[in-house]
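Subject: complex prediction, re-run

Hi both,

The earlier run crashed halfway through, so I resubmitted it with identical inputs.
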Amino acid sequence: MKQNFKYKVIAVLMLFCVSLCSCKPEQQKNKYTAHSFDYFDTVATITGYETSQAEFDKISNEIFSQLAEYHKLYTIYHRFDGMENLCTINEVKDGAHRTVKVDRRIIDMLLYAKEMYTKTDGMLNIAMGSVLSLWHDYRTIGKDNPENASLPPMAQLLEAAKHTDINKVLIDEENLTVTLTDPLMKLDVGAIAKGYATEQIALYLEEKGVSGYLLNIGGNVRAIGSKPDGSEWLVGIENANKDDYLAYLEIADKSVVTSGSYQRYYTVDGKRYHHIIHPDTQMPATEFTSVSILCKDSGLGDALSTAIFCMPLEKGKTLIESMNEVEAMWLSVDGKITVSSGWNKYIKK
Amino acid sequence: MEKQKTTNKRHLRNDIILVAVLLLFAIACGIYLFFFRATGDAVKVTVNGKPYATYSLSENREVNIYTGNNKQLNRLIVKDGKAFIETATCPDKICAEHRAIFRDGESIVCLPNRVVVTVIKSDKTDAPDAVT
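This time it finished cleanly. Structure:
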């Protein structure tokens, strides 16, 4: 009798062992990933937990098609038949810009960019297109032909800098029109449009009740909900191609954006020149290697990461601390790391 | 008394068998898990968002990834459990400067050639879901 009982206990224990070893926890949702290279001149990665590939494809295709629309509206490099976009706003005909009637999504983004200009004391300026296009052209030539790479002449940069007044961007909210009143000015929304579009898509998904998705639009990371098991997303911050990450953050329903000098650059006479141009010097900003922003709104994160990159540390810290639920991390060119007061709350334990 | 002793002996013998069986079972489980995991590490290559190939990380190899009607090349090296791009025909060479990847979910992206190399199923921990 006693013996019998013992064997029963043993049998149960062994069954328990077998179940521990062989069964993965019951998972109804798998992790899926999709990439696209077609939008905002970068790679867009969507990660999501769904019950099947078909379910995931439904959401990810919707995200990609929305990205496609925002890309077409916000690109300054291409025009499309039958639509006005940032490229056609920049066009000059007979010595002047036209008044262009545009999609509501362009008006909203430009208004937001103007608001950010004020908030960042001019460090985020979408009216810097004339200066940035000089850098863009010289960088493109320099990358295609490294032996002949050269810098844009300072005289040209200073001349272009005379045509960067954001008050000459006229926006008529009622009639949905945009006019650039300085014929030599151009818009460049590269520091804000990608993040703004990411945020609009995230808000749309949230409204639809979607959860368990992580968007990474060229480094604009935005979490929609948490993972299905309730755990947070782990976001690594690149350490300028060094072997480990600068930080691991745990987030849900939030965004992390990094601006880094290692992301886009070219080399002239052995020296690197990156793409974040300081509005006061017309040259690449020199104080930091990267600045990362953690906040809810990916558009805000995108704009702030560029603006803070161009501000002295103390001024940037004051700005970040004055904002609610916005955190930042600075990596200075000499390798020193500074974080805002609430940053460490998000560091992975 | 004599009978009691035999029963005790039998009990002891049974216990030893039991412990031995459990131990063997645990070792078998361990071996199975070890091999199963070691062969799970791999990198997945996609070109322009479409699957291209998957390579095990446990085997050294060199792969030429041709894209754009074979005009563009990214040379992928798998060595000592890590993967990196050695050379590329793209203008910026950012992918070739990227460090070697080995943690689950890490990736190297070549924007101009539209190539993504991602580590899948690795048991190396601390793998982020996204990198910025």
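The mean pLDDT of chain A is 92.

- K.
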